[in-house]
Design a protein that fits this description.
By secondary structure, this protein is of the alpha+beta class. 31% of the residues lie in helices and 29% in strands.
């Protein structure tokens, strides 16, 4: 069965050089798995961990892109950076700096039908990485 797909234009995401906008194709039925914050030094291990669970090999190239997006983001200005984790299922990690504050705001989105086990794993990972100050 083929699901419904919509095209959404996201104006709250930073644009790349020479772009007038960013077009994302997403399922109509996406849900927020977790909305939290992570210390900057915990962001990479958090994203590497959830990537591993969906079979995506998050590497240095991914990290450079995500780190660059974080630096250009601003939660107060609603400028979030979205990075896709192209595993099964696909996850979208949205991040934004809280200007004047240390933590990075993080939202993880997934298509509807995400298993309860994976949802709890992602929530637990966020709680664990928020509990430790990795140096």
């Amino acid at each position: 069965m083929v699901g419904m797909v919509s095209v959404r234009y996201r104006t709250d995401l930073p644009l790349g050089a020479g772009q007038s906008g960013t077009l994302h194709v997403v399922s109509d039925e996406r849900s927020e798995v977790v909305a939290t914050w992570v210390r900057p030094q915990s962001l990479r291990p958090f994203v590497e961990t959830i990537s591993r669970w969906v079979g995506y090999g998050f590497d240095d190239t991914d990290w450079l892109a995500l780190a660059d997006g974080v630096e250009k983001s601003d939660a107060d200005a609603r400028q979030w950076f979205m990075y896709p984790i192209d595993g099964v299922p696909r996850l979208d990690v949205e991040v934004a700096l809280n200007v004047g504050h240390v933590p990075v705001s993080v939202r993880v989105l997934a298509e509807a039908g995400l298993s309860d086990v994976l949802r709890v794993q992602i929530e637990a990972a966020a709680a664990i990485f928020n509990s430790y100050d990795l140096a």
